[in-house]
Automatic annotation (TrEMBL):
Subcellular location: Cytoplasm
EC number of this enzyme: 1.8.1.4
Protein name from the UniProt record: Dihydrolipoyl dehydrogenase
Record NCBIfam families: lipoamide_DH
UniProt domain Pyridine nucleotide-disulphide oxidoreductase dimerisation: residue ranges: 356-465
Naturally occurring in which organism (per UniProt): Xylophilus rhododendri
Residues at which NAD(+) binds: 190-197, 213, 281
Enzyme class: oxidoreductase
Miscellaneous field: The active site is a redox-active disulfide bond.
Family: Belongs to the class-I pyridine nucleotide-disulfide oxidoreductase family.
Keyword Calcium attached: no
Keyword check for Transport: no
Binding site for FAD: 58, 122, 153-155, 322, 328-331
Cofactor: FAD
Length: 475
C-alpha cells in the first residue's frame, strides 16, 4: 500500500529541498526524494549545487586564493613567509567537509520541518484523477502517493559528441573538483562560468591552463565593457583563452589528452594536455522519471514544459529549476520552489526573471543583474550609463584589490535602473543592493542619494549611480 502525502518533491537540490520546506511550512504533508549518495553510500541531498557544483567549487576557489595570496601577496602586507607548500589531499578534504556539512544541514532541515525523506530515485508509476503514484528505487523500494508533485530533478553536464566523460582524463565539473594531483597542463573547452572558475582554481595551484572557446566573443552574455576588463585580468594572471576555435578530434590515453582544433584564423592546431575539462553547458535531467508513462510533456531539449507558473501539462504536477526553461541557477530554482509551494496553497508566488543576479566567482568576481548595454541597443531603448573604478575606492586600496569597476545603466527618461554590472572585489555581495533597488523600481538617483558606509566597497555602487548623472565625487 502506498504511503499518502499531500506533496511529493522529486529532487533534493536547491529547488527541491526549498520547495519541500516551504510546502511543509504551509501545512502540507511532504515527502522529499533524492538519490544522491556520499562516498559511504549514504544520502547526500543538495543536488549538483551542493555536491559537485556551487558549494565545492567555492571551497576550492577560496583555498586556491589563499595559496596564491601566500605566495604572491603576503609580503606586500609585511608578512614574510617561506616554505609554503601545497597539501592537495588536505585541500580536497576540506572541500569534502564543507560539502558534507551542507548535506547534513539539509537532512536536519527535513527533520525540523517534519518532511519524510526517501533516499533513492523517484519515478512515476501511474496517474489517476486522485493523484500520482511514485516509486522510490533505492536500498529499499517504496511506493508513495500524492495529489501534488514537484519535479526538481536538475541537470547533467553536457558531453562533447563522441567524447564521453571518463572522469579520469576527460572531466566534467564532477571530475574537475576531485583531481588527485595538480596537472602540469590543463585544457578546458568552454569559457563559461564552470570553465573560468575551474581554470582559475587549478592555475593558482600550479597548472598551465589553456581554454578553448568556440564563440568569437568572450563572455558574450556579459556586458562587454565588463567582459573586456575581466579578460584583461585573466590574461595577466596567465589564463590562456583562445576564442573562435572549432574543436576537432579528441584522443585520450594514459599519457593524457590530445585536442585537435582550428583556431580563429582557420589554422589547424593541436593542444596536448594532461587533463581536459569539458564545460559546454548542461542538459535537463529527466532520466528514469518515466515521463512518457504518464504523458508528461518535454520539449526538444528534453526539458519539462511549464507555463509561467511552473505548471506542467499534468494537473497537480509542477517543475522547477534546471529541468525547465530559464537560467540554470541555484537561486532561480530556490525562488521557483518557494513560488510553487505558495501557489499550491492558493497564494501568489513571485519570481521576477528580470532581477535574477548572475555571478562568476573568479578573481576578479563578475556579477550583474538586468540588461546589458548591448541588449538595450538591440531593443532600441534609450539609456544613460555611468561607472566608477575600484582604483578610486579607499577600501579596495586597503584590501589591495583595485581591479574593475561598478557600472549602472538607467532609462534615459525616467532614470529607472535597467542594469547593474560589476567586475571586481566582492561583486557577488555588492550586486544584491542592485537587485533590491530594481525590485522596487528604484532610480539611479535613489542609490546616489543613499548614505553608504565609509570606507566600504559599496561606496563604488553609490559613485557609479552618481556617474549616471556625471557627478561622481571621488573620480
Amino acid at each position: 500500500m502506498s504511503q499518502q502525502f499531500d506533496v511529493i518533491v522529486i529532487g533534493g537540490g536547491p529547488g527541491g529541498y526549498i520547495a519541500a520546506i516551504r510546502a511543509a511550512q504551509l501545512g502540507f504533508k511532504v515527502a522529499a526524494i533524492d538519490e544522491w549518495k556520499n562516498a559511504a553510500g549514504g544520502p547526500a541531498p543538495g543536488g549538483t549545487c551542493t555536491n559537485v557544483g556551487c558549494i565545492p567549487s567555492k571551497a576550492l576557489l577560496q583555498s586556491s586564493e589563499h595559496f596564491e595570496f601566500s605566495h604572491k601577496h603576503l609580503a606586500e602586507h609585511g608578512v614574510k613567509v617561506s616554505g609554503v607548500e601545497l597539501d592537495l589531499p588536505t585541500l580536497i578534504g576540506r572541500k569534502d567537509t564543507v560539502v558534507k556539512q551542507n548535506n547534513d544541514g539539509i537532512l536536519y532541515l527535513f527533520k525540523k520541518n517534519k518532511i519524510s525523506f526517501f533516499h533513492g530515485r523517484g519515478s512515476f508509476v501511474s496517474a489517476t484523477d486522485a493523484g500520482y503514484e511514485i516509486k522510490v528505487s533505492g536500498a529499499k523500494e517504496e511506493t508513495l502517493f500524492a495529489k501534488q508533485v514537484v519535479l526538481a530533478t536538475g541537470s547533467n553536464a553536457r558531453a562533447l559528441p563522441g567524447t564521453p566523460f571518463d572522469e579520469i582524463n576527460v572531466l566534467s565539473n564532477d571530475g574537475a573538483l576531485r583531481l588527485g594531483a595538480v596537472p602540469k597542463k590543463l585544457a578546458l573547452i568552454g569559457s563559461g562560468v564552470i570553465g573560468l572558475e575551474m581554470g582559475s582554481v587549478w592555475r593558482r595551484l600550479g597548472a598551465e591552463v589553456t581554454i578553448l572557446e568556440g564563440l568569437p566573443t568572450f563572455l558574450g552574455a556579459v556586458d562587454q565593457q565588463v567582459a573586456k576588463e575581466a579578460k584583461k585580468a585573466f590574461d595577466k594572471q596567465g589564463l590562456k583563452i583562445n576564442l573562435g576555435v572549432k574543436v576537432g578530434e579528441i584522443k585520450a590515453s594514459d599519457a593524457g589528452v590530445s585536442i585537435a582544433y582550428t583556431d580563429a584564423k582557420g589554422e589547424a592546431q593541436t593542444l596536448e594536455a594532461d587533463k581536459l575539462i569539458v564545460s559546454i553547458g548542461r542538459v535537463p535531467n529527466t532520466i528514469g522519471l518515466n515521463a512518457e508513462g504518464v504523458g508528461l510533456k518535454l520539449d526538444e531539449r528534453g526539458a519539462i514544459v511549464v507555463d509561467e507558473e511552473c505548471k506542467t501539462n499534468l494537473p497537480g504536477v509542477w517543475a522547477i529549476g534546471d529541468v525547465v526553461r530559464g537560467p540554470m541557477l541555484a537561486h532561480k530554482a530556490e525562488e521557483e520552489g518557494v513560488a510553487v509551494a505558495e501557489r499550491m496553497a492558493g497564494q501568489h508566488g513571485h519570481v521576477n526573471f528580470n532581477t535574477i543576479p548572475w555571478v562568476i566567482y573568479t578573481s576578479p568576481e563578475i556579477a550583474w543583474v538586468g540588461k546589458t548595454e548591448e541588449q538595450l541597443k538591440a531593443d532600441g531603448v534609450a539609456y544613460k550609463a555611468g561607472s566608477f573604478p575600484f582604483l578610486a575606492n579607499g577600501r579596495a586600496r586597503a584590501l589591495g584589490d583595485t581591479t574593475g569597476f561598478v557600472k549602472f545603466i538607467a532609462d534615459a527618461t525616467t532614470d529607472e535602473i535597467l542594469g547593474v554590472h560589476i567586475v571586481g572585489p566582492s561583486a557577488s555581495e555588492l550586486i544584491s543592493e542592485a537587485v533590491v533597488a530594481m525590485e522596487f523600481k528604484a532610480s539611479a538617483e535613489d542609490i546616489a542619494r543613499i548614505c553608504h558606509a565609509h570606507p566600504s566597497l559599496s561606496e563604488a555602487t553609490k559613485e557609479a549611480a552618481l556617474a549616471v548623472d556625471k557627478r561622481t565625487l571621488n573620480f
